[in-house]
Amino acid sequence: MIANASAERHASRTNDSARIIAARGSRETTLGRNTRVLLIGFGNMGQALARGWLAHGRDASAIRVVDTAPAARAAAAGLGIAASERVGAAAGSSGAPDVVLLAVKPNQLAPALVEAAPLARGGVLLSIAAGKTLRQLEAGLGAGAAVVRAMPNTPAAIGQGITALVANPAATPEQRALCDELLAAVGATAWLDDERDMDAVTAVSGSGPAYVFLLIECLERAGVEAGLKPELSRRLALATVAGAGAYAAAADEPPAELRRRVTSPGGTTQAALDVLGAERGLGDLVSRAVRAAAKRSRELSAV
Are strands 161-167 and 146-151 parallel, antiparallel or unpaired? Predict the structure, then answer.
């Protein structure tokens, strides 16, 4: 029975992303489906966003992609989205966009801003480039430009991400709503009142998926060391972390109460938690990890 269930899950894995995003796409959009979006950068996150928009009913003809990589442009074409190598070519064929979304790597941001500046001044610039502040983005656009900075995370690829956003004073409520809708296509959204919180957000949710992947890796390895076959240990670790996360998200009680509920005094779980909760144990490690990530985020933002 376990082997059969595993085969079925493996056979459907390639369709998971499309199914999850399509399910989220049943939510009715509140803004025009033809709102013009110029997406600069079509890597993993850019493609996840585009799939989410299409699943939500946004018209492919209202989306333009710019990417220098032929493979990225081919991926856009596969979704029915027109793509260009340069910003000028994309703008000339569709008019000024309502939002310019920068989904490039931080080291590619400066030249992308130069190209995007003339178009972004007429709408709103939405940047998901890590470590680049509102002030840095505004400097590339000029005074009065509407700018929104966002930090999505890896699960956005399957429509299960969370994105924190912060806007400068020039961004109107309508522009904020548009940016929120675009990013809600791949998961939950949360607005920040203070941009300084973005470093902590980066450390918790931006880098957080890697911490969870490490937990799965450690749990899998520990299972093997305890005598399990590697394949079984991996499946148990993956299902346990995914199931516990879903359970915690659906529960009304805080995680601490859920933990107490499944911990019998003197039982196996208590024995394990005594180790994890020891001085300088898991809690201390996670705190130090988050502080280190937040510190590095501040350092990168200062560059």
Answer: antiparallel
pLDDT digits (tens, 9 = 90+) for 270-302: 999 999 999 899 999 999 999 999 999 999 888
> What residue has token string 């997406």?
39
Cα gap 152→200, rounded to integer Å: 13
> Model confidence over 122-165: pLDDT tens digits?
899 999 988 889 999 999 888 889 999 999 999 999 999 999 99
Q: pTM for this structure?
A: 0.85
Measured distance CA(56)–CA(147) in Å, rounded: 24
Reference 103, options 75, 61, 80; nearest CA is 75
As to burial, measured by CB atoms within 10 angstroms (0-12 exposed, 13-18 middle, 19+ buried), residue 166 is: buried
| E strand spans, the chain | 37-40, 63-66, 82-84, 99-102, 124-127, 146-151, 161-167, 187-191
Q: Which residue segments constitute the domains of the chain, with CATH numbers given?
A: 2-197 (3.40.50.720), 208-301 (1.10.3730.10)
Residue 254 carries which DSSP code?
-
Residue with tokens 């300088």: 280
Bridge-based pairing state of the strands 37-40 and 82-84: unpaired
